Protein backbone atom coordinates (compact mmCIF):
# COMPACT_ATOMS: atom_id res chain seq x y z
CA UNK A 1 0.00 0.00 0.00
CA UNK A 2 2.82 2.39 0.90
CA UNK A 3 4.48 1.81 -2.49
CA UNK A 4 1.18 2.50 -4.28
CA UNK A 5 0.78 5.83 -2.44
CA UNK A 6 4.36 6.85 -3.22
CA UNK A 7 3.86 5.93 -6.89
CA UNK A 8 0.64 7.95 -7.07
CA UNK A 9 2.32 10.89 -5.36
CA UNK A 10 5.21 10.81 -7.87
CA UNK A 11 2.76 10.74 -10.79
CA UNK A 12 0.95 13.74 -9.32
CA UNK A 13 4.21 15.66 -8.92
CA UNK A 14 5.15 14.89 -12.54
CA UNK A 15 1.71 15.99 -13.72
CA UNK A 16 1.75 19.28 -11.77
CA UNK A 17 3.92 21.26 -14.27
CA UNK A 18 1.70 20.14 -17.15
CA UNK A 19 -1.42 21.28 -15.28
CA UNK A 20 0.23 24.62 -14.52
CA UNK A 21 1.05 25.16 -18.20
CA UNK A 22 -2.51 24.33 -19.21
CA UNK A 23 -3.84 26.79 -16.61
CA UNK A 24 -1.46 29.54 -17.75
CA UNK A 25 -2.19 29.11 -21.43
CA UNK A 26 -5.97 29.51 -21.24
CA UNK A 27 -5.86 33.11 -22.51
CA UNK A 28 -4.79 34.44 -25.87
CA UNK A 29 -1.98 37.01 -25.78
CA UNK A 30 -3.34 40.34 -24.60
CA UNK A 31 -3.65 42.86 -27.43
CA UNK A 32 -2.59 46.48 -27.12
CA UNK A 33 -3.82 49.51 -29.01
CA UNK A 34 -2.26 49.99 -32.44
CA UNK A 35 -0.52 53.27 -31.69
CA UNK A 36 0.11 55.69 -28.83
CA UNK A 37 1.28 59.26 -29.39
CA UNK A 38 3.48 59.54 -26.31
CA UNK A 39 3.34 63.34 -26.18
CA UNK A 40 -0.48 63.25 -26.05
CA UNK A 41 -0.47 60.45 -23.48
CA UNK A 42 1.72 62.37 -21.03
CA UNK A 43 0.20 64.28 -18.13
CA UNK A 44 -2.30 63.50 -15.40
CA UNK A 45 -4.61 60.50 -15.39
CA UNK A 46 -7.12 59.85 -12.60
CA UNK A 47 -7.51 56.19 -11.65
CA UNK A 48 -11.30 55.86 -11.80
CA UNK A 49 -11.52 52.06 -11.52
CA UNK A 50 -9.03 49.28 -10.92
CA UNK A 51 -8.21 45.88 -9.61
CA UNK A 52 -5.75 47.27 -7.08
CA UNK A 53 -2.24 46.18 -6.21
CA UNK A 54 -1.42 45.84 -2.52
CA UNK A 55 -0.28 49.47 -2.27
CA UNK A 56 -3.56 50.72 -3.79
CA UNK A 57 -5.97 48.79 -1.53
CA UNK A 58 -6.85 51.88 0.54
CA UNK A 59 -6.12 54.54 -2.10
CA UNK A 60 -8.31 57.63 -2.35
CA UNK A 61 -7.75 60.37 -4.96
CA UNK A 62 -5.38 58.16 -6.99
CA UNK A 63 -3.62 60.10 -9.73
CA UNK A 64 -0.92 58.94 -12.14
CA UNK A 65 1.29 61.47 -13.94
CA UNK A 66 3.57 60.66 -16.88
CA UNK A 67 6.45 62.81 -18.08
CA UNK A 68 8.48 61.76 -21.17
CA UNK A 69 12.21 62.12 -20.52
CA UNK A 70 14.95 62.96 -23.05
CA UNK A 71 16.28 59.39 -22.86
CA UNK A 72 12.87 57.97 -23.86
CA UNK A 73 11.96 56.76 -20.36
CA UNK A 74 8.79 57.93 -18.66
CA UNK A 75 9.07 59.53 -15.24
CA UNK A 76 5.94 58.45 -13.41
CA UNK A 77 4.46 59.92 -10.26
CA UNK A 78 1.64 58.02 -8.58
CA UNK A 79 -0.04 59.87 -5.71
CA UNK A 80 -2.99 59.05 -3.49
CA UNK A 81 -4.35 59.60 -0.01
CA UNK A 82 -4.04 56.52 2.18
CA UNK A 83 -7.18 55.31 3.94
CA UNK A 84 -9.45 58.33 3.42
CA UNK A 85 -10.13 61.26 1.11
CA UNK A 86 -8.07 63.46 3.44
CA UNK A 87 -5.65 60.72 4.56
CA UNK A 88 -1.87 61.01 4.42
CA UNK A 89 -0.50 61.65 0.93
CA UNK A 90 1.53 58.77 -0.52
CA UNK A 91 3.80 59.18 -3.54
CA UNK A 92 5.52 56.52 -5.65
CA UNK A 93 7.89 57.27 -8.52
CA UNK A 94 8.33 54.28 -10.84
CA UNK A 95 9.93 54.65 -14.25
CA UNK A 96 8.28 53.50 -17.46
CA UNK A 97 10.26 52.06 -20.37
CA UNK A 98 8.81 51.60 -23.84
CA UNK A 99 9.20 47.95 -24.84
CA UNK A 100 7.46 48.19 -28.22
CA UNK A 101 8.58 51.37 -29.98
CA UNK A 102 6.45 50.56 -33.04
CA UNK A 103 3.19 51.07 -31.12
CA UNK A 104 4.40 52.70 -27.84
CA UNK A 105 1.61 50.66 -26.20
CA UNK A 106 3.73 48.07 -24.37
CA UNK A 107 5.80 49.32 -21.47
CA UNK A 108 7.81 47.96 -18.61
CA UNK A 109 7.09 49.80 -15.34
CA UNK A 110 9.96 49.67 -12.86
CA UNK A 111 9.35 50.29 -9.16
CA UNK A 112 12.47 48.42 -7.99
CA UNK A 113 15.57 47.76 -10.09
CA UNK A 114 15.96 45.45 -12.03
CA UNK A 115 12.32 44.32 -12.16
CA UNK A 116 9.96 45.80 -14.76
CA UNK A 117 6.26 45.04 -14.48
CA UNK A 118 4.08 44.42 -17.51
CA UNK A 119 2.13 47.56 -18.54
CA UNK A 120 -0.13 47.39 -21.60
CA UNK A 121 -2.25 50.14 -23.04
CA UNK A 122 -5.21 48.06 -24.21
CA UNK A 123 -7.73 50.84 -24.72
CA UNK A 124 -7.25 54.52 -25.55
CA UNK A 125 -9.94 56.77 -26.95
CA UNK A 126 -9.10 58.97 -29.93
CA UNK A 127 -9.14 62.13 -27.81
CA UNK A 128 -6.73 60.71 -25.21
CA UNK A 129 -9.30 61.24 -22.45
CA UNK A 130 -9.79 57.63 -21.27
CA UNK A 131 -7.50 54.63 -21.20
CA UNK A 132 -7.30 51.10 -19.84
CA UNK A 133 -3.97 49.72 -18.67
CA UNK A 134 -3.76 45.95 -18.26
CA UNK A 135 -1.30 43.14 -17.62
CA UNK A 136 -0.82 39.87 -19.49
CA UNK A 137 -1.25 38.00 -16.18
CA UNK A 138 -4.74 39.52 -15.85
CA UNK A 139 -4.13 40.25 -12.18
CA UNK A 140 -4.30 44.07 -12.11
CA UNK A 141 -6.03 46.58 -14.36
CA UNK A 142 -6.51 50.35 -14.30
CA UNK A 143 -9.19 52.46 -15.94
CA UNK A 144 -7.90 56.01 -16.10
CA UNK A 145 -9.42 59.27 -17.24
CA UNK A 146 -8.41 62.90 -17.56
CA UNK A 147 -11.44 63.62 -15.32
CA UNK A 148 -11.82 62.46 -11.71
CA UNK A 149 -15.14 60.76 -12.47
CA UNK A 150 -16.69 58.84 -15.35
CA UNK A 151 -20.36 58.11 -15.97
CA UNK A 152 -21.93 54.77 -15.10
CA UNK A 153 -22.44 54.20 -18.84
CA UNK A 154 -18.69 54.67 -19.49
CA UNK A 155 -17.83 52.44 -16.53
CA UNK A 156 -20.13 49.68 -17.82
CA UNK A 157 -18.51 49.93 -21.26
CA UNK A 158 -15.00 49.69 -19.78
CA UNK A 159 -16.09 46.80 -17.57
CA UNK A 160 -17.22 44.89 -20.67
CA UNK A 161 -13.83 45.49 -22.34
CA UNK A 162 -12.02 44.30 -19.21
CA UNK A 163 -14.22 41.22 -18.98
CA UNK A 164 -13.51 40.40 -22.65
CA UNK A 165 -9.78 40.56 -21.86
CA UNK A 166 -10.29 37.72 -19.36
CA UNK A 167 -10.43 39.57 -16.05
CA UNK A 168 -12.71 38.79 -13.12
CA UNK A 169 -14.64 42.06 -13.09
CA UNK A 170 -16.11 41.35 -9.66
CA UNK A 171 -12.72 42.50 -8.33
CA UNK A 172 -13.00 45.97 -9.93
CA UNK A 173 -13.13 48.88 -7.50
CA UNK A 174 -13.94 52.53 -8.05
CA UNK A 175 -11.67 54.68 -5.87
CA UNK A 176 -13.21 57.84 -4.47
CA UNK A 177 -11.91 61.23 -5.56
CA UNK A 178 -12.29 64.43 -3.57
CA UNK A 179 -14.09 67.18 -5.40
CA UNK A 180 -11.73 70.13 -6.04
CA UNK A 181 -12.12 72.84 -3.44
CA UNK A 182 -11.94 76.58 -4.01
CA UNK A 183 -8.25 77.50 -4.04
CA UNK A 184 -7.07 74.07 -5.20
CA UNK A 185 -4.62 74.14 -8.07
CA UNK A 186 -5.75 72.00 -10.97
CA UNK A 187 -2.97 69.77 -12.26
CA UNK A 188 -4.43 69.37 -15.73
The strand order across the widest sheet is 1-2-3-5-6-7-8-9
C-alpha end-to-end distance: 71 Å
Named CATH topology = Lipocalin
Q: What fraction of residues sit in β-strands?
A: 25-35%
Per CATH, which architecture? Beta Barrel
> What is the name of the CATH class?
Mainly Beta
Q: Are there runs of 5+ residues with pLDDT below 50, and where?
A: 7-25, 183-188
Q: What's the overall geometry?
A: globular
What is the N-to-C order of secondary-structure elements (H for helix, E for strand)?
HHEEEEEEEEEH
Q: Using the CA coordinates, give the radius of gyration.
A: 20 Å
Count of alpha/pi helices: 3
Per DSSP E runs of 2 or more residues, the count of β-strands stands at 9
Integer tally of domains: 1
Give the helix/strand layout.
Elements: H1 2-24, H2 38-41, E1 43-51, E2 59-68, E3 74-82, E4 89-92, E5 95-98, E6 106-112, E7 115-124, E8 130-134, E9 141-145, H3 152-164
Task: Characterise this structure.
- The protein has 188 residues and is of the alpha+beta class.
- It has a single domain, classed as Beta Barrel (Lipocalin).
- 21% of the residues lie in helices and 34% in strands.
- The protein is built from three helices and nine strands, in the order ααβββββββββα.
- It has an eight-stranded antiparallel β-barrel.
- A hairpin with a 6-residue loop joins β8 and β9.
- The termini are far apart.
- The C terminus is likely disordered.
Please name the defining characteristics of this protein.
21% helix; 8-stranded antiparallel beta barrel; globular; 9 strands; single chain; 3 helices; 34% strand; disordered C terminus; Lipocalin; alpha+beta; 188 residues
